[in-house]
Amino acid sequence: MTSGVSTGAAISPDSGEHWAAEGAWEVAPGIHRIPLPLPMDGLKAINVYVVRNDDDAGGLTLIDGGWAIPVARELLDKCLRSIGSGFGDIKRFLVTHIHRDHYTMATVLGHEYGADVALGLPEKPGLDLLHAAGRGEFDQGNPFSGVLRSAGALEVADAWELGRRVEDLPDPVDWAYPDTWLDGDVSVDIGSRTIDAVHTPGHTPGHYVFADRADGLLFAGDHVLPTITPSIGFTVPPEPDPLGHFMASLSKVRGLPDLRILPAHGPVAPSSHARVDELLAHHEHRLEQCLTSLRSRGASVAALVATDLGWTRHERSYDELDLFNKGMAAMETKAHLDLLVARGQATCVTSADGDSYTVTG
C-alpha cells in the first residue's frame, strides 16, 4: 500500500528536501537522521538515526546501521563528522530487525569499535540459518524455495534456485551475532532519555520499534512506513501467520500515544495513529480481494490468487513484475490466505503443487 505521495517523490519536513538527500538532518534536539544509499532498484536509501547521549558518559546510540557497503560506510563517516562525531563515539546500535540494510553495518562497526549491538531474540533462527550457509551448507537449496513452492509459485522457485551463486554466501563478518538480545518489551536508557523497545513481529519475527514517549517519537523501522507497506512473508525460516502477527503488532503500536514517525524508509511523518489506521484498512481490503478471487476460482494456490491482485502503487499485474517481485507477491498473497484460514474464512489443503485454499461455507 502506498500513501498519496510516492516514496520516490517524498519531501521530509526535517530537511525540506527529498527524504534521501545526503546529510545529517536534525529531527529533534540531539537526534539526527542520516539517509544511507542502498544498492537496489526499489528502495533508494535507509534512514539511520543518531541519538546523542546527554549524560556525562556522552557518546552516540544509532538506531539501525545501514547496509555494509563501502559507499554507505563512507557517507555515514562523513555525516557523523559533520555533527562533530565519529565511529569511535558510537556506544550502541539498536537494530530494528535482521534485514541486511538494517543489520550488517551495525554489526561490522560494532565489532570494529566495541559498540554494543542489540537485536530482537526471535531473529536468532534467521541468523542461525545464515551461519549454517556460511559453513558450506549452500547445497541445501535456496531457503525460500519451500515457501515459494507452498505458494504454488513452482517456476519462480526453480528460477530462484538456479539464480543462486556461491559468491552470494553470507559473509560471517556481516552477520555476526549481536552482543545483546532484546527479549519481550523492555526499556532502554540513552543518557537521561528512556526509550521503550516494543516487539512488533510481522515483517520479521524479531522486529522492534523504539518509542520515545517523552519527545513524541517513534523509531519505526520497517513496521510503520509513511509511503509504503513492508513485505510480509519474506522470512526464513518461515513463520506461521506472519500477516496476523503484523496486524496485531500494528494494533499494539496504535495503543501507544500518537507519535511522530521516524521511519527506516521515507520521510518523517506526523502521526503513527493515522498511518496505522491506513495500513490496517489496506490489509483488510486486501483480504477481501483474496476472498473474491477464491470465490471466483473455487480453489486456488496463492500464486494464482496473486494474478488477480494489483501490485505497487501503479496497480501492475502479476505478469508485469520481475522474477524477484513475483516471488515476493506470491509469498505475501500466501500470508493473506493463511490469515483467512486462521480467521475461519478459508480452508487449506497441502499438495505437491502448493497449498490450495477454498472459501469456507
From TrEMBL:
GO MF terms held by the record: hydrolase activity
Any single Pfam family the record assigns to this protein: Lactamase_B
InterPro entries found in the cross-reference section: Metallo-B-lactamas, RibonucZ/Hydroxyglut_hydro, Sec-metab_biosynth-thioest
Record key words, sorted: Hydrolase
Hydrolase is among the record's keywords: yes
Span of domain Metallo-beta-lactamase: 45-265
Name assigned to this protein: MBL fold metallo-hydrolase
